Structure formats: structure tokens, C-alpha cells
Request: fold
Amino acid sequence: MPGPERKTKWGNPPWKIDFCSKKISIPKEVDFAVVGGGFSGLSAAAWLRRFEPSKSVALFEANRVGAGSSGHTGGMTLAETAAGDIPGLGDVLAGLSEIVKELALDCDLSLPGAWELGREDGLPDSPIAWTDTGDLRAVKEVPGGTLDPGKMVSGLACCADASGAQIFENATVSNIEFQAPLRLNVNDNVILAHKVLLATNAMSLELSDLTKRAQPKFTLAVATEPLSEVQHGALGLGSGRPFYTIDFPYLWGRLLKNRGVIFGSGLVHLNDWHELADVDISAGQAAELLAQLEKRVRGLHPVLHSVKFTHRWGGPILIPEHWRPVFSLHPRSPHAVVLGGYSGHGVALSVYLGRWAAEVMLERRKPLG
Reply:
């Protein structure tokens, strides 16, 4: 059932999440508890029930599903991690494609490749020729593509729900007692769980024990009005490939289904993840960075000089040590798994690792390490 329209201080991206959890009582005990209702948590919940339909699964989300990073991402699907390929990781995009097919997810997944852009050594036949602190050109084509984040969140949530996983929105896990079984404090209730997945990414870092191992940031994006095929051609985006720079100042972007273009850049630096609740894109540093981004976009190419922006938004990312995602057992319990810290590369990776995390909880695989 579609949920109500979501409006936050983080702005509204150009997609919607159509899911509303059922009104059911919180259980006293479950086999598997998932904390966090983004790509990772929803994927894990869906696969846990798919792998072991006899086991009970409960997912707890402090807000609404997709309210954090997953619903506020840009929807670029990239291979590997922000730290590059990691031994044993496997083919992320092939794995994502398989998951989309097996779960019958309608998420507009498209994998035409992606452009890496740079200010030096551009390809002689680069389709992109922009002005941005120097001449910005395509330097390499790499695996990648795009999907609709709203449809992906909605699809994973519906799949998890249909499989029998219980999804609780506005259910805050305030504390976990790391004993056997684990004891979760959720909205003044105590739930016993035999295994727990902590998939809160940039939020609730005390629970995941990442306060000293990762830095939460807030990144920003804008979407333009629909552009014509002629304008797309002039910008070098006719192939539908998303793009990102390999040098600074950083810039990334992609086409939308309505033919608008997303551009993203900028980081609001935070001292503590709790400050995310106070970030408002209409004020302070976030508003300044958005204004700078819009001015920058209009200066990229003559066809963008007078472009209008239809959406402005931002969302949290978590940057761990060495940019390597966190996928390990919790230091306080072998029955708790921590997954997150994608450093802006999480759209494909989080769904892919969500399935892997389900296998870890079922003791069929080991974490990535």
C-alpha cells in the first residue's frame, strides 16, 4: 500500500517510496532481527525468509523505510567499492542483476556503463566537453549504470513483507544488550533475537560500534528540468551513461527517466552522526553548497546556462577507514553482524552485500572481512 508523501529537511529527490508497513504488534522473540530499513537491511530481510522460510525475521526502522541514505542517494550503480576491488568481493553488478531478476524487482536497472571524467588526458573522442575548473572530459568507460532508488526500496520492502518478514517503521532500537540471546530495546519493548544485522550505515553508530572507525557526512544533489535530445547530445549524455570525476572538485551525475539530469557534489562535515537530524538544505552550509552546485552546473556548458532545477536534496553517507566498507561480526558478539560504510558507492553494493549478510547470519558464508 502506498505510504504518505514524505517531506523532510533533507529535501525531496525525484522518486517516491511506495510502501507502508502493516500495523502489527512487536514480537517478544525472533530468530533474526535486522536494524535499519535501507537497501542492506531490506535485502537481508527478504533473503533470510527466502533462504529459511521457517525462521522468523523482524526489521526495525527508526523512521520510514528508505528514510536514510538509500532513499536519498542518486541511484548510480557502480562496480566494486570506493576502495576499488576487494579480494573475494565478486562481481557486484552481475550479483545485483541476478538479485533484481530473482526477486522480480521493478527498479529501472540499466547498466550501459559509466564515464570517468578528468581534467587531464581526456579521450580524443570524448563525448563530454565541459568547463569546470579546467576542461572536463571523459577519460575512461567503466562498468556501471543507474536504477530508481525509490522503486528499489519499495520493491525490496514489498518482497520482504510478502515473504513473511515483519517490518516495523518508526521503531527505534535504542540499545542492545550483547548476550545470548541478544536483547534489543525497541520503543520501550524488549525483543530477544538469536542473530542481529546492524545495517544503519551513517546512523546509530554507537550500536554498530563505528563511532571511532567511520565519519558520517551529508552530500547534496540537484535535478534539472527535462532536457531535449539535442541538449543531451550537446552534453555528451546521449548514451545514458552516468558519470563521476576522478579528480577534484568532485562531480557526479546521471540521466533521469523524464530526461532531466542529476548533478551531485559537496559534503557537509559533521562532528557526530546525531547532527544529521538538524541538517536543513534550506539553511546553513547545506544551502550554501547547493547554491554553489547550481551555479557550477549552469557553467558546465552553454545549454545549461538557464536551466531550471526541479529537485534539491541531500543525504547521509558513511566514510570508514581506508574507504573500505564495513562487513564484519560485531566486536561484542559473534551473533551480531555489522554492514555499512559504502562511501557513496552503496547503491549496488548494499543490495548485493545484503544477500551475503543473510547467508552470514545463517552461517553459510563468512563476512567479507
Q: What stands out?
A: The domain at 29-361 is CATH 3.50.50.60 (FAD/NAD(P)-binding domain). The radius of gyration is 20 Å. The chain has one domain: 29-361. The mean pLDDT is 96.
